[in-house]
Structure formats: C-alpha cells, structure tokens
Specification:
By secondary structure, the protein is α/β, with parallel strands linked by helices. The chain is 39% helix and 23% strand. The protein has one domain (2-220): Vaccinia Virus protein VP39 (Rossmann fold, 3-Layer(aba) Sandwich).
Length: 225
C-alpha cells in the first residue's frame, strides 16, 4: 500500500495543478489505478481487467499502444509503472498514442535506468532467499532493460517537459522489503488512512537522487480547444 501511495501522490499533485473538473485517463490502470488517491471519476484502461473496476474508475479494455479514444479526448493522461513492462520497441508507440489523446498534460512515471533495474534484481533475490513467490510484476521487470530519460528526447514540438524525482533508491528498497511483512503492510495502511497529509509530506521527503523512479510531466505549450 505504501508503495502505491509513494508512486501516486506526486502524480495526483500534478493533476491538481491542471485545475478542477478535469477528465483523466489512466493507461495500464489495472482494477483501481489512481482511484485510491484521485477521488474524482476517471477512465482506466488495460488489456485485462480481472474482477472489474474499483472506486470511481470507468473501465475500458484496450491496449496502451492502440488507445480506443479520439484525438484530444482527455485533459490529462497518466501512465504509471507501465513503460518498464513493454518491450523497448513498443515504448515510443505508447508515448505517441498518449500524446495523441492528451489535451493538456501527459504524465509518465516509471523505474528509470540501470541503477533502478539493479535494485529490482536485488529485490528479486531477496524474495528468493526468503522462500517467497516473486510477484509477477517483478518477474516482468526482469524481461527488459528499464527505460531512461532519453525516451522523451524527440517529443513533438509544442510540448514542454518537467522531470520529478520519485523515491530514492535506498527508500524504495527499504519500503519494498518492509512490505513483505504483513503486519508492517497493515501499519502502513492505517497510517495512510488516519494521517494521509502527514504521510504524503513524509513520502515527499524521500523523493530525491539517486531516485528509483522518475515522473515525466509533458505539457502542451498552447491550449487546445
């Protein structure tokens, strides 16, 4: 639970900067996506949505590389921890599709670069030493090198780019190992429910170099009607 909060709090802050009453698409959302932290209705899409959607999400089954939406359909599009699951040759296709349907802002967050990949290799070994089943998402992380910042080196003209650090390497590794223990995970959940603002401020202090994840905020420089 804490790792989802660490990942989504910075994204939600960026969404709030856009303005009220925006329509949002969450690509690769799974059954809940940003819905634990973004309480307004939004559209979530994924290739598989087992068990249906939760919270305020309206689910749509489709691939991020072939989004089933018209151009400029959403004020903001979120792609959180998706890029590292794609083969390198498909990543630029997804970026193009997201920019096609985004009217104002596109937000991409993902584990970035070789240091983050090496940390996940270490985390996988930790699971194996403990005799625990390695999560599917972690096995998928090992299939391809993680994308780097140069994924956005040739974005189309008319877009600006801001990079936000998310989770230091040391904090991420501590958090993921701690969440292996059920009691610690429950404690994190209670803390987020009882003191969400304090939890967010504490997590924000962990967003520093060397970072595990980077969040790339692409914004149209001219408003599109």
């Amino acid at each position: 639970m804490l790792n989802r909060a660490a990942r989504y709090f910075p994204i939600v802050r960026e969404l709030k900067n856009i303005g009220p009453h925006i329509n949002v698409l969450d690509v690769g959302s799974g059954p809940r996506g940003i819905g634990e932290f973004w309480l307004s209705p939004f559209v979530g899409c994924d290739v598989i949505l087992p068990g249906g959607a939760r919270g305020p999400m309206r689910p749509v089954v489709c691939s991020g590389t072939e989004l089933a939406f018209r151009d400029l359909s959403f004020d903001a599009v979120v792609v959180s921890d998706v890029m590292e699951h794609l083969a390198p040759e498909r990543r630029s296709v997804l970026v193009q599709e997201v920019l096609r349907v985004a009217r104002k802002v596109a937000i991409f967050g993902y584990p970035c670069g070789p240091l983050a990949f090496a940390l996940d290799e270490k985390l996988r070994q930790n699971y194996q030493r403990r005799g625990l089943a390695t999560p599917v998402w972690l096995e998928e992380h090992m299939l391809h090198p993680f994308p780097q910042e140069d994924l956005f080196s040739d974005i189309p003209s008319g877009w600006s780019l801001k990079v936000v650090l998310n989770e230091s390497l040391r904090f991420h590794y501590w958090m993921m190992r701690t969440e292996m223990h059920r009691l610690c995970d429950y404690a994190f959940r209670f803390g987020l429910v009882l003191m969400p603002k304090i939890a967010e401020r504490l997590l924000q202090q962990m967003d520093r170099e060397p970072s595990y994840r980077k969040i790339f905020v692409l914004q149209r420089q001219e408003t599109v009607c």
